[in-house]
Automatic annotation (TrEMBL):
Keywords: Cell inner membrane, Cell membrane, Cell shape, Cell wall biogenesis/degradation, Glycosyltransferase, Membrane, Peptidoglycan synthesis, Transferase, Transmembrane, Transmembrane helix. GO terms for cellular component: membrane; peptidoglycan-based cell wall. Pfam families: Transgly (PF00912). The chain crosses the membrane at residues 6-27. This is Monofunctional biosynthetic peptidoglycan transglycosylase. The keyword Nucleus does not apply.
Length: 127
């Protein structure tokens, strides 16, 4: 009974994010955690109105996607969403004050920002 419950919960915890990623690959999400948080409690000086318009890759410079990928995740073409080598490197180099740098990939950052509302605590950072 407990084993079956554990398996079901594990499948849900792994399956729901996977289905959301697949779904939002093809559908522009109408709202996301960051937008909700900025609407409910905008930081001081944050504009009251923002307008974001999605543009197809064909309408922007071909260098823009490459620049974003290069600045955020240099090993993007070499992994499948989680950079195990970078994670182990950060874990092995961290000291008592915590890691000196992060190891999240573009995939991990996107999932975190689409699924979770930005919080001023360490819980989302740990994901």
């Amino acid at each position: 009974m407990i084993k079956k419950l554990f398996i079901n919960i594990t499948c849900i915890l792994l399956g729901v994010p996977l289905l959301l990623v697949i779904f939002f690959k093809f559908i522009n999400p109408p709202i996301w955690g960051w937008k909700i948080a900025r609407t409910l409690s905008p930081p001081e000086g944050y504009p009251t109105q923002t307008h974001h318009q999605w543009a197809p890759l064909t309408e922007i410079s071909s260098n823009m996607p490459k620049a974003v990928i290069a600045s955020e995740d240099q090993r993007f073409p070499e992994h499948y969403g989680i950079d195990i080598d970078a994670l182990w490197s950060v874990i092995s180099q961290s000291d008592t004050t915590g890691p000196a740098r992060g190891a999240s990939t573009i995939t991990q950052q996107t999932a975190k920002k689409r699924i979770f509302v930005p919080q001023p605590n360490l819980y989302p950072k740990s994901l």
